[in-house]
Design a protein that fits this description.
By secondary structure, the chain is of the alpha+beta class. The protein is built from five helices and seven strands. Helix content is 29%, strand content 28%. The two termini are 27 Å apart.
Length: 132
Amino acid sequence: MAGETNLDVLLRGMRPVLEDGEYVFCTLPHPASPDLNALAPVGLFHEDEGLTLILRRERADAAGLAYPGTFRWVTLSVHSSLEAVGFIAAVSTRLAAHGIGVNPVAAYYHDHLFIPSARAMDAMALLEAFGR
């Protein structure tokens, strides 16, 4: 099933959901072979500098992994196409206008935002306003 590409439909129908818990971004040098089952990352990405992991804060703490800050995970529930144009740009521009940083992650069905924990509720209010 193809995702939505119409920007107006995406913005009106994004239905942001604030997931439970706090998340962190950690990095491990190459060659890293972490026990991914124990860490249970919600995301990982191979970069030239190392392996980036996105995982729950308590899992990083238990593994002794360092991280620069904590984030809340917001899922934009609309099924967005991987070829949609301007959706994340519009969302991040709105958040940036209010001094809120965002780390977006595109997945097959939905876009996900990692918002600094201290600003998560502010971000949710702004995102929910798109639908009104």
